[in-house]
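Sequence, please.
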């Protein structure tokens, strides 16, 4: 009797060939499309200093949950049934967590915190159970689990807190534990510390995963433009112009990241002596870069939905801050990839800063047009600079 069942796939990815991003990972990302949409809507409805701080903390939670899982799938094979089921389980919990985002600082704080803690602690505990005895990766995951348990206690305590500022503070401590602990190699009393040289990652896979999340965030920007335009009372010249401004801004943001740096980033991390160190830097930088995209998506909503209104001080954070944060994140990213801070991005941020004294005299549509022009100029400048560099040094990445 023949056994026609498919062969079992190994839990760990092979390091003898390049790791590919699999369909399971793309499917997993769909939950985070929803999460990014929830965050941009929350920020749009809470355009205050406190609202921005709350959105930032929730964004860190969304990013850290996704990023830690991406590191797991860099080592483990999502095509193997156990890993696939783990990803689906994380998706289910992340869907509930994302649904709770708008009320995370209200009556669903504990739901949000419990879901997030379950994702982080549960995934890492499962990895430790799945690893073979004596695996060289086990000590790193034990240290990671220790830090995630510390942060989970702070997440849950914040979810139980009835005072909003106390919740904010406890969750800020939790974020710090997870964001900064990799910088120390997850150093933990009694467990030692890890070295980035021990993080034998596939650099190309991690770079592609970061790129895919940038696409997810840019997709929210495009969706924000389309949805706001669809709700416009009249599709007159002004409405069409506003939509064109936001769409061109999205294209320019795509151009700045993908046309001039994404392929080079993959090359750099794939050929690095210590890809774990470069991967960690990607981890720190992309959270800033994508935050700029989310804030810019909120600005797109304002440009199309309220373009004729004058700019109020509360709008500055998204109209000017969103593009500025995005340029800063890209500049830091290119500093890692190319070894230099691009002058185009510095000038772009300076131009945005120069708008601060006068933007209050503009309408939202005019202000949005000005910021889009700045981002387009940066994209063109950076593109020309990279082309000249390739012409001078054709082997440069």
């Amino acid at each position: 009797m023949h056994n026609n069942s498919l062969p079992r796939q190994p839990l760990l990815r092979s390091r003898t060939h390049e790791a590919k991003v699999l369909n399971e990972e793309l499917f997993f990302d769909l939950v985070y499309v929803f999460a990014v949409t929830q965050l941009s809507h929350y920020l749009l409805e809470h355009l205050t200093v406190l609202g921005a701080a709350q959105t930032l903390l929730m964004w860190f939670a969304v990013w850290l949950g996704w990023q830690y899982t991406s590191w797991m799938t860099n080592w483990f094979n999502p095509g193997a049934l156990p890993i696939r089921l783990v990803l689906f389980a994380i998706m289910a919990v992340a869907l509930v967590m994302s649904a709770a985002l708008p009320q995370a600082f209200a009556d669903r704080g504990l739901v949000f915190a419990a879901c997030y803690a379950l994702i982080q602690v549960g995934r890492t505990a499962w990895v430790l159970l799945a690893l073979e005895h004596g695996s060289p990766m086990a000590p790193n995951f034990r240290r990671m689990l220790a830090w995630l348990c510390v942060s989970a206690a702070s997440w849950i305590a914040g979810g139980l807190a009835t005072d909003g500022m106390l919740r904010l503070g406890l969750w800020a401590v939790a974020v710090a534990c997870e964001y900064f602990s990799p910088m120390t190699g997850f150093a933990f009393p009694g467990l030692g510390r890890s070295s980035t040289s021990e993080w034998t990652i596939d650099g190309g896979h991690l770079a592609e995963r970061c790129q895919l999340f940038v696409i997810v965030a840019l997709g929210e920007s495009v969706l924000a433009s389309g949805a706001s335009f669809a709700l416009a009372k009249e599709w007159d010249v002004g409405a069409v112009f506003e939509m064109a401004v936001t769409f061109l801004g999205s294209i320019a943001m795509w151009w700045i990241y993908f046309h001039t740096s994404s392929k080079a980033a993959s090359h750099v991390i794939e050929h690095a002596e210590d890809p774990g160190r470069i991967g960690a830097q990607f981890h720190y930088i992309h959270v800033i870069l994508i935050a700029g995209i989310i804030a810019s998506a909120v600005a797109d909503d304002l440009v199309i939905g309220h373009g004729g209104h004058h700019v109020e001080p509360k709008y500055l954070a998204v109209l000017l801050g969103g593009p500025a944060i995005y340029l800063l994140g890209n500049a830091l990213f290119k500093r890692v990839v190319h070894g230099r801070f691009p002058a185009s991005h510095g000038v772009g941020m300076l131009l945005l800063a120069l708008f601060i004294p006068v933007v209050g005299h503009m309408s939202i549509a005019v202000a949005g047009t000005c910021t889009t022009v700045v981002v387009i100029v940066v994209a063109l400048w950076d593109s020309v600079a990279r082309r000249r560099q390739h012409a001078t040094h054709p082997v440069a990445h």
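The chain has a mean pLDDT of 88.
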